[in-house]
Amino acid sequence: MFIEPGIDQGGAMGAKSSGWIEVICGSMFSGKTEELIRRLNRAVIANQKVEIFKPAIDTRYHDTNVVSHNENSIRSTPVQFADDILLLTGNSDVVGIDEAQFFDKELVAVSRKLANSGKRVIIAGLDMDFEGEPFGPIPALMGIAEYVTKVRAICMKCGSVASFSYRLSATKDKVMLGEKNVYEARCRKCFYEDFDPKEKL
Ligand SMILES: Nc1ncnc2c1ncn2[C@@H]1O[C@H](COP(=O)(O)OP(=O)(O)O)[C@@H](O)[C@H]1O
Ligand SMILES: Cc1cn([C@H]2C[C@H](O)[C@@H](COP(=O)(O)O)O2)c(=O)[nH]c1=O
Ligand SMILES: [Zn+2]
């Protein structure tokens, strides 16, 4: 069971309370999007004004909605640059951002500005890429966040808990959209059994 800061503090963000940043990170299939949707739905139930964003390049399941692997879904606004989020958040109380690994580093400054202006910012994204390296702005966001939740999947090779996303194709591009056809969740042992860091370009 995760601790849910906003709800634990009474559900509402009082006039005097400042904002904060929550990061939900982990491998693919670890439940990041499910957990993001769960927190956002509860904020809606608490009558808070919620805005949700995702990078425009993430068209894997749906052009606009944020969709989890088990088909939970919530409406969102696709944006090209992190800066666009500032223009679109207006008087919202809670800002949700999915697939944040695809945003530029500017997302760090944007999230700080949103939280400093009193908003609750909930960010979900991959902490590591297919080579086991830190992914985009996520590590920096973990550094400035008040709350970090690292979720884990099930290793598809041995059934243990998984923190790595193993790419089944030989493609070396950092960005390659896909799901079970291209990636599987793996534990450390099973990831490095089949991935040789020396082969990196
Ligand atoms: N290897 C796996 N480990 C855990 N869950 C998995 C796995 N493969 C598929 N799933 C499904 O994926 C769901 C999580 O999806 P989602 O929240 O979209 O994950 P993420 O956003 O972290 O990729 C789980 O509830 C489960 O139904
Ligand atoms: C590891 C890795 C993943 N991707 C892509 C694959 C998916 O489209 C998303 C991750 O989605 P999820 O909600 O976390 O399942 O990212 C990539 O482009 N590069 C990578 O190294
Ligand atoms: Zn394993």
TrEMBL record:
Active site as annotated: 99
Entry EC number(s): 2.7.1.21
Positions annotated to bind Zn(2+): 155, 158, 187, 190
Intracellular or extracellular location(s): Cytoplasm
Keywords: ATP-binding, Cytoplasm, DNA synthesis, Kinase, Metal-binding, Nucleotide-binding, Transferase, Zinc
A single GO BP: DNA biosynthetic process
Listed GO MF terms: ATP binding; thymidine kinase activity; zinc ion binding
Family membership noted in the UniProt record: Belongs to the thymidine kinase family.
Protein's name according to its UniProt entry: Thymidine kinase
Species per Swiss-Prot/TrEMBL record: Reichenbachiella agariperforans
Lineage, uppermost ranks: Bacteria, Pseudomonadati, Bacteroidota, Cytophagia, Cytophagales
